[in-house]
TrEMBL record:
This is Sensor domain-containing protein. Residues 245-255 have a biased composition (Low complexity). It comes from Streptomyces catenulae. Keywords: Membrane, Transmembrane, Transmembrane helix. InterPro entries: Put_sensor_dom. Residues 245-277 are annotated as: Disordered. Residues 44-236 form the Putative sensor domain.
Length: 277
């Protein structure tokens, strides 16, 4: 593994794994179910499933347009907008992390050369641009799959816990043409295993079972949000500075930066006008 790959991927991932998160896990399952961390994690995952898909489409379109338009000299200025579009999408993702944690910091390579060529060189040689593309485009299918599976399990259990509130409003038509109110848990065609919920006692028992399962599923929701937040920190934040410890030591006061000690009275002098005895 080359030094460039280590500085681009390994170091940010190591720093992200060591970064503390605000999504605390409660030891008590009932407390975990009603904790703010569980519902913030739900909003974070749902937001990425919606907004992340839009950002992936926008960033992919901008990247492909930049690659095509960059081949033409007249549209070279338009191709420079690709990095700006990708950066805007990544900035929204960094700010969206404030829902479960602090906003993700960022640092982009400054433009040091004048002209359009200098801007293009600074934008497309910046490692942060490629990390943004990796998060927004390459990893989006995997993160979206994580979001959908977690939310599907979580919302199904919550709907089951609320069965007494809505089971009586749902019905199904039987084979003889009659219409029966209730919900079938299992195969909807009635051929496979399942339970028919058509009374209040059955709804209350099923609701209690779903509620217990939802208590433990809340840990999975928080774990999924923490995993996605770790990936976001690993790719969207600047890599750690290897010289940071040395800079910190130089910035701290030391023997070379300590103020000089004022000279004391002469050891050989007395209080009688400073004459030696």
């Amino acid at each position: 593994m080359t030094t460039a790959v280590k500085s681009l991927l390994v170091a940010p991932v190591s720093a992200a794994l060591l970064t503390p998160r605000r999504l605390a896990r409660a030891a008590n399952p009932p407390r975990m179910l009603v904790s703010a961390a569980t519902w913030r994690a739900t909003g974070y995952l749902a937001g990425h499933a919606l907004a992340g898909s839009v950002f992936c489409a926008v960033a992919t379109t901008a990247l492909l347009a930049g690659l095509l338009l960059g081949q033409l000299t007249l549209t070279l200025a338009l191709a420079s907008g690709t990095a700006w579009v990708v950066r805007c999408c990544a900035q929204v993702e960094r700010g969206r992390a404030a829902l479960v944690d602090a906003p993700i910091p960022y640092a982009y390579q400054p433009v040091t050369e004048p002209g359009l060529a200098g801007h293009l060189k600074a934008r497309f040689t910046d490692p942060a641009f490629y990390r943004d593309c990796c998060y927004l485009i390459l990893l989006h299918p995997l993160l979206l799959l994580l979001d959908l599976l977690t939310l599907a399990l979580w919302l199904t259990l919550l709907a089951g816990a609320a069965l007494p509130l809505w089971f009586w409003a749902v019905g199904a038509r039987q084979a003889d043409g009659s219409y029966v109110h209730g919900v079938r848990l299992g195969r909807s065609n009635g051929l496979g295993p399942g339970v028919w919920i058509d009374s209040w006692p059955a709804a209350l028992i099923a609701s209690a079972v779903f509620l217990v399962l939802a208590m433990y599923a809340s840990y999975a929701v928080v774990a999924a949000a923490r995993l996605q937040l770790t990936v976001a920190h690993a790719l969207l934040r600047p890599p750690p500075d290897p010289l940071a410890p040395a800079r910190r030591v130089l910035a701290e006061p030391g023997p070379l930066t300590a103020p000089p000690t004022p000279p004391g009275p002469d050891a050989g002098s007395t209080a009688h006008g400073g004459h030696r005895t």
